[in-house]
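Fold this complex.
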Amino acid sequence: MNDKDIRALMIRQLGQIAPDVPFDTVDPDADLRDEFDIDSMDFLTLITALGKELGLSMPETDYDQMRSFVGLQRYLSSHVT
Amino acid sequence: MTGPANDGERISKPAHVRADANMENYDKVRDSFSWEAAESALDGLPGGHLNIAHEAIDRHVAAGHGEQIALRWIAKSGARTDYTYGELFRLTNRFANVLRDNGLERGDKVYALLGRVPELYIAALGTLKAGCVFCPLFSAFGPEPIHARMEIGGANALITSKRLYQRKVAGIRDRLPQLRCLFTTDDAKVAGTRHLQPLMDSASDIFETVPTDPEDTALLHFTSGTTGKPKGVVHVHQAVVAHHTTGRLALDLRAGDIYWCTADPGWVTGTSYGIIAPLTNRTTMIVDEAEFDINRWYDILFEEAVNVWYTAPTAIRMLMKAGAEALGGRTFPHLRFMASVGEPLNPEAVIWGNDTFGQPFHDNWWQTETGGIMIANYAAMDVKPGSMGKPLPGITAGIVKVADGKATELTAPMSMGELALRPGWPSMMRGYLHEQARYDKCFKDGWYLSGDLAMRDADGYFWFVGRADDLIKSAGHFVGPFEVESALMEHDAVAEVAVIGLPDEAAGQIVKAFVALKPGFEPGDDLRLNLMGHARKRLGPAVAPKDIAFRQNLPKTRSGKIMRRLLKARELGLPEGDISTLESDEA
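Structure:
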């Protein structure tokens, strides 16, 4: 899976959780939870869904690397083989 | 006699821990306790007046503690900013002057819609100094919950950020005729809003705290009901007597402690124990702007050398799930007391705390209406994991049965009934704003009825059983099904809707909606997402349903009332119970 696919997957999964927030209105470098107006539960749902699709175990202790859209994308890219 | 879920389990406290606690002997303190004596721990103001902000800040500065750090703010970036009691004194004076300069008078309602930023704390205390009423709103609310709470309370002023203004307030402002002043913490550059910083800079830092009457309204907190609009819970300045006392007895707070309450001030815990009690007890409060994050939280506990930590089951369960390796070798030698509130903490989490931190989490129980902790596990008392503990000194709790319009106390151990309290403690609500009938309904035969079902064991420990109504508790906060249903009903496709709470490992419960569609609409993923988006836009992530399912029809009684209880039982595969009133069933 390349960067483009990962990005598309992220946008699709975020669209499931926050369908009211168009992707082109968010700042990908800013706080992911603020930008998509999602709470901790939504964030967990997102991570679980991404982990399942990509076959990744994403431990809670890595969540601090996933604070922005770009950060999360970078994390996924570097962990997906 | 032990509690239901954990036969024989009891965590005893070592002698040195008991001897060191603020309340070494629960029974002894309870026997001799009086609220009048408790009040003498505070200063008061001449002529029998009392103001929370004076007790929280002014008196400490007058006593020579102006140099002590009152608030250490940790920004999302990790940067630390310290505010001493002296600085907080001057900043809250400035804020009170800003309110006066902008025509806000004693008794006016000042709302805050902010994340955990210093301005929130300054606004809360400055508002109280000015004799105004402070009402915090949770920043994860959407426009509709915000509008309902501002309209019911008659908000006269709002402090918010540019971002929250644009996303959540701009669209409802026209519908808030009483809102005269709008301050933003950054320059919104929007007509009719004022940037707070320059106003603060030019305001005087001298202000004489208004000598409020103990029974003057100080705080307004909203809570959800099963039916109808949210309820505005009125608290008065006298409540500070309970905040201070319970902070000392139930949280073991001491002057000079480093204290971290992780609750957001948008909820009552984050105000009573995230602003008031820590300051009246002259602790140093840690405030973290960021949301829950495991590494960050362990770093804060470790680096700030936190002494007392007050948090919530959702977070504790997530920490527990991450396991011991998440600790990364960090130890917490300064941590003296850990407490939890929001919903019952499961016994496993209490025991995990004991194994991991060398002490259990001390669960306690209270409500927005009670204003302060009512039942608690104490530093010097054995913990029965899963129990909420025993009533505070000065609090009489009972298990009552309400039948034929009468409330009768059930005294046999482990009888199940409604958890009830004898009214009269200082932080008891003084009313639901404009809702006398709903307020009156909370009281019967000299008891305040909590709406929670519970049991008391032979040792006097209380055990939570469930809710007596359909209220949902998600991540420790009540969500009123009616509020969610109302927002969904506004959607063109929706004919009827019922909202219930489903068990969730982390959040306790999550909100799920069942929707029956109008003719001409087809259920499907697109419509489901459309409904989710609709609900989120209006309600915000804290209130909107996390899941939506379609039904042809919803189960109803003869009078047309949707049977949420039945939907829930079916969803969980539980017995359906009494369905004699069921008239039309789901399909």
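Chain A has four helices and no strands.
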